[in-house]
Amino acid sequence: MKSLFSKVFSVWIITCVLWAEGANEFRKEKLSPQLEDEVHASIFKKAKTNQAGALTEHLLANRQQKQLTEDYPRKRSNFIDHFIFEKMERDGVPSAASATDLEFLRRVTLDLTGRIPSPQEVREFIVNPDPTKRDKLIDRLVNHEAYVDKWTYFLMDLLRANGKMGRGRYLFHYWMKENLNSDRPYDEVVRALITASAKSNHVVASANLIAREHIQGAPQPQDGDDFSMVQQLDTHDELSIIYAKAFLGINLSCVSCHDGQGHLEKVNVYLSGKTREQFFQNAAFLAKTRYLMYWENGKPQSGEFLIDDGNPGYDTVGASMIRVPRLGGSSHPAFLLTG
Predict the structure, then answer these.
(1) Is 95 in contact with 88 (CB distance < 8 Å)?
(2) How would DSSP label each residue in 93-127?
(3) Is 243 helix (H, G, I), strand (E, B) or coil?
(4) Co-location of 215 and 280 in the same domain
(5) Given pLDDT bands bounded at 50, 70 and 90, which one contains residue 148?
(6) How many structural domains are present in the chain?
(7) What pLDDT digit, counting tens, does each position of 183-232 carry?
(8) How open is the CA angle 141-143-145, to the nearest 5 degrees?
(9) pLDDT tens-digit readout, 304-325
(10) Please, what is the angle between helix 276-283 and helix 232-243, to 10°?
């Protein structure tokens, strides 16, 4: 037994030594401390200033690898290219030089899959003479399972998927993956989330966002149905807020309680001009939706709802459990951004 242990221990020691030697070989590819200091010198010796954009201008001025170029007519493959370069041209913003193959490979792989390319992928991409290899790389990455995994995770995080969805969160995750796998149009996914109607959230996947954002109104029903189990108006508000955050990139939490004027000037100039009444009108698009907890064997089931269009509309003086009292205003639906 002792002899066997000694042999195993010896093999382990030899393996560690070989691994260390291999690691040392790999580390030779890293920048030396002197070269690393030299490369980053322009960053750490920047002039102190509060001028907006000064740091960017300083870094660009000290860029040694490539100079800026006015090459606006460069290849434009899609409407995003046209939008960006045309705006830069109008604003007189010079275009940075194209990224090297190594820079492009690393950036696009991280962006699309959340991972860095393998050494073999790096070697193959750099020596590939195909002038369309960058476009082909993007096509390959967006059809890769890693792309689906990364962006499913992103969307689940964006929509705050968690145990409040009950058993439906597993279906919701599967549904998100299948939307990406099948390249389902984004507007269809959003429409399915906003207009979900379901008897149970582990049957209709898109209804789980409503389950996640509902505000419970009472621990038990007050009468023969469970209408009071969900605070209907507060749930409209919470859904209006999450839809704006996820799909419009704006946070309506503040104007859901009070007007923006006098509160949001230092946070969001645009929303400082919006009122709580306008928030009510935006939430009023959802006000026909009714959220009823799903009952089974005499008790509500976690995260499961009957969702229909049985609500009477938005009540701008209705009670709230989580916000300051509603003080009235128009309940006519109007989109916050356009009226």
Answers:
(1) yes
(2) PPBPPPPPHHHHHHHHHHHHHSSPPPHHHHHHHHH
(3) helix
(4) yes
(5) very high
(6) 2
(7) 999 999 999 999 887 777 778 888 888 888 888 887 776 665 666 788 88
(8) 85
(9) 778 888 889 999 999 999 899 9
(10) 100
Q: Assign 273 to helix, strand or coil.
A: helix
Is there a single domain that holds both residue 274 and residue 154? yes
Sequence-separated (6 or more) residues with CB below 8 Å from residue 328: 316, 317
- From the list 266, 237, 230, the residue with the least C-alpha distance to 245 is 237
* pTM of the entire predicted model: 0.69
Note the residue count of the chain. Answer: 339
> How far is 223 from 210, CA to CA, in rounded Å?
24
Residue with the bigger pLDDT between 280 and 67: it is 280
Per the CB < 8 A criterion, the answer to whether 293 and 300 are in contact is yes
Beta bridge partners of 291: 307
Show the domain range for 209. 147-308
Residues 152, 284 share a domain: yes
In a domain, 48, yes or no: no
CA 73, CA 195: separation in Å to the nearest integer? 43
Tell me the two tokens of residue 332: 């006519």
Q: Which of 195, 170, 198 is nearest to 304 (CA)?
A: 198
For residue 307, what are the β-bridge partners? 291
Tokens of 214: 């509902």
Alpha-helical (H) ranges within the chain are: 2-27, 33-44, 54-61, 79-91, 101-113, 119-127, 133-142, 145-158, 168-181, 186-194, 208-213, 232-243, 276-283
Query: Does residue 181 share a domain with residue 291?
Result: yes
| Domain-embedded: residue 208 | yes
Residue 85 belongs to some domain of the structure: yes
Indicate whether 314 belongs to any domain: no
Domain boundary among 143, 165, 191: 143
| pLDDT confidence of residue 206 | 87
Q: What is the DSSP string of 154-203?
A: HHHHHTT-SGGGTTHHHHHHHHHHHHHHTT--HHHHHHHHHT---S-TTT
